[in-house]
Design a protein that fits this description.
Chain A: Keywords: Membrane, Signal, Transmembrane, Transmembrane helix. Chain A: This is CopC domain-containing protein. Chain B: Keywords: Membrane, Transmembrane, Transmembrane helix. The structure holds 2 protein chains of 2 kinds. Chain A is of the alpha+beta class. Chain A has a domain at about 30-135: Macroglobulin (MG2) domain (Immunoglobulin-like, Sandwich), CATH 2.60.40. Helix content of chain A is about 25%, strand content about 40%. In chain A, strands 1-2-3-7-6 form a 5-stranded antiparallel sheet, with no helix packed on it. Chain A has a 4-stranded antiparallel sheet with strand order 5-4-8-9, with no helix packed on it. In chain A, a hairpin with a 2-residue loop joins strand 6 and strand 7. Chain A is elongated. Chain B is built from 12 helices and 2 strands. A two-stranded antiparallel sheet of chain B has the order 1-2. In chain B, a hairpin with a 4-residue loop joins strand 1 (about 100) and strand 2 (about 105-110). The two termini of chain B are about 35 Å apart. The chains are: A alpha+beta, B mainly alpha. At the A-B interface, helix 1, strand 7, helix 2 and helix 3 of A face helix 3, helix 4, helix 5 and helix 12 of B.
Chain lengths: ~170, ~375
């Protein structure tokens, strides 16, 4: 219990002491790029980690060669050939000069396709990044991770079982 | 008037102005509310702004909430231990009967023991979450296993808060506290149920069915521990008040904090309040149904509640997001699951309410 107290006191001190300097956000570091030709637009796809692994989050950047000004577009993801998700191309929150997805994780291993539909001064164009291979997730199997994470739930159920057995009579 | 008050005070100098147990109970409840504020703010931050560190203000609220509840719980346990070792009387209205921890090293009132264990678990799961982020990146996924572990830990503190106030249910502050603590637990649990997305549900929308189960169960629990007309409605009204308050607060605080840190809002940020929209707006209907149908068996009223919540969930999505009505087979399967789980939740909530009534010291029950 004293350790808990010390731990809590330490936490409070850390919270109060380190807040201001720690609010510096990580820059977007592109370590791998792929090229996509979407009609008249040359698009560079940037990845902040490579290779991509399932459930491991990374920054994606989507940069037309002559910038995003005056352009709009849609990104559609396909998983093993079937449409999975789509949305408008939005500026990356930490790299506002390009479009992107911030700390985004591909949910499952396999073959993914990213389709870009872009409208701009040179007209409309569509291009695809095909065969994006997403590797198996890192770390322990999800079953084990869930087992560890739901221990509080099972503890609560145990408490309820004990309380249930001790409180058979109704209290008015 | 002044003279009168002075005279009264002078004639009874030993009158307690604050009921015994109210202050630590309020601190624990306040801590859980700070956790809830941190959670609604953090969810909104991720959806509307994005950039994240360990020390964003919403995160600090989350850590501080558990720290405040945990320290208050620890203080009560240490004081109770000290009193018990000196053979001083330990009033069970403060958190319930004291139980031995580590043999008889500590004497811990059971409500504060549970709230304190929740706060301690929060620290442990914080480390698990740090390790997870090191491996998987700084993902903003609310339903990752460590995040669900953290949310469950906070929920245990919230269960402890309900227990602490349930002990004092014969006093006004206990009654109001039960409604407040149960409503806080209910609102918070609507985020924890997102973990059910990991379950294969077939046609059933597991999150909607889970929301129905937990909201019906907690509503019944509050109603049966208070065991008075209006108990369910009180919990429902507090949940609705929290929902309304956070509907305004979450986007507002997010924008203010983004301005203060010089960060822009995301392109296409819709500003729709994330956490408040996870709370079923139909809950107030369920609360009214529980009040009106109180003579029917709990399982039947629970099933009605489960049906109301699962049937209205797509309507809420259509109203807020303008989304389409789901496929009819998926809708019907989810409503059937809502009925079955609602019936179970009604029975469990009723039983949990009775269990919580056992925590109170045996004496007259003025509200019974």
């Amino acid at each position: 219990m004293r350790r808990t107290l010390l731990g809590l006191a330490g936490t409070v001190a850390l919270l109060l002491g380190l807040t201001a300097p720690a609010l510096a956000f990580e820059p977007v570091n592109v370590v791998h790029t792929e090229k996509v030709q979407a009609g008249p637009y040359d698009l560079t796809i940037g990845f902040s980690t490579w290779p991509v692994k399932a459930m491991q989050s990374l920054d994606f950047t989507f940069a037309p060669e002559d910038g995003i000004t005056g352009k709009t577009g849609t990104l559609t993801m396909f998983y093993n050939g079937a449409e999975d998700d789509d949305g408008p191309l939005a500026r990356h929150p930490r790299k506002r000069e390009v479009w992107g997805l911030d700390i985004h994780a591909m949910p499952a291993p396999g073959t993914w396709t990213m389709r870009f539909d872009i409208n701009g001064p040179a007209g409309a164009g569509t291009g695809e990044l095909k065969n994006l291979q997403v590797m198996e997730q890192p770390g322990p199997p999800m079953g084990l991770s869930w087992a560890i994470s739901t221990i509080p739930l099972f503890g609560l159920i145990a408490l309820i079982v004990i309380a249930w057995r001790r409180t058979r009579a109704t209290v008015d | 008037m002044t003279a009168h008050i002075t005279a009264t005070a002078a004639s009874s100098p030993v009158t307690r102005t604050v009921p015994r147990g109210l202050i630590p109970a309020s601190v624990v409840l306040g801590g859980t509310l700070i956790s809830l504020i941190g959670l609604t703010w953090d969810i909104q931050w991720h959806s509307d702004v994005g950039p994240d560190t360990f020390f964003t203000l919403p995160h600090l609220f989350l850590y501080a909430g558990s720290a405040i509840s945990g320290l208050a719980s620890l203080a009560v346990v240490l004081l109770t231990t000290a009193n018990s070792k000196r053979d001083k009387e330990v009033d069970p209205v403060v958190g319930g009967r004291a139980v031995g921890v580590f043999g008889r090293t500590f004497a811990a009132p059971v409500g504060y023991l549970v709230s304190g264990i929740g706060a301690a678990l929060f620290l442990v799961y914080g480390l698990w979450d740090q390790w997870w982020h090191g491996l998987y990146g700084f993902d903003a996924v609310i339903d990752s296993p460590p995040h669900i572990g953290l949310l469950l830990s906070i929920s245990i503190t919230m269960v402890g808060a309900v227990m602490i106030f349930a002990v004092a249910r014969d006093q006004n502050w206990g009654t109001y506290g039960v409604a407040g603590a149960a409503a806080t637990l209910l609102a918070f649990s609507m985020v924890t149920v997102l973990g059910l997305r990991a379950l294969p549900g077939g046609l059933v929308n597991t999150v909607n069915a889970g929301s129905a189960f937990f909201s019906v169960m907690i509503l019944f629990m509050g109603a049966y521990v208070l065991k008075r007309r209006g108990g369910a409605l009180a919990v429902g009204v507090v949940v609705a008040a929290l929902q309304a308050l956070f509907w305004w607060f979450s986007p507002w605080a997010t924008e203010v904090y983004a301005d203060a840190t010089g960060l822009p809002l995301r392109d296409y940020a819709d500003g729709i309040p994330g956490l408040p929209n996870m709370i079923p707006m139909s809950l107030i209907l369920v609360a009214v149904a529980v009040e009106l149908l109180h003579k029917l068996p709990a399982w039947l009223v629970g099933a009605v509640g489960g049906v109301i919540i699962t049937a209205c969930a797509p309507l809420q999505r259509m109203f807020v997001y303008g989304s389409n009505f789901p496929a009819i087979d998926r809708f019907l399967a989810t409503v059937v699951a809502g009925a079955v789980l609602g019936a179970l939740a009604g029975m469990l909530g009723r039983r949990f309410g009775h269990m919580l009534r056992h925590l109170a010291p045996a004496k007259d029950n003025s509200h019974a």
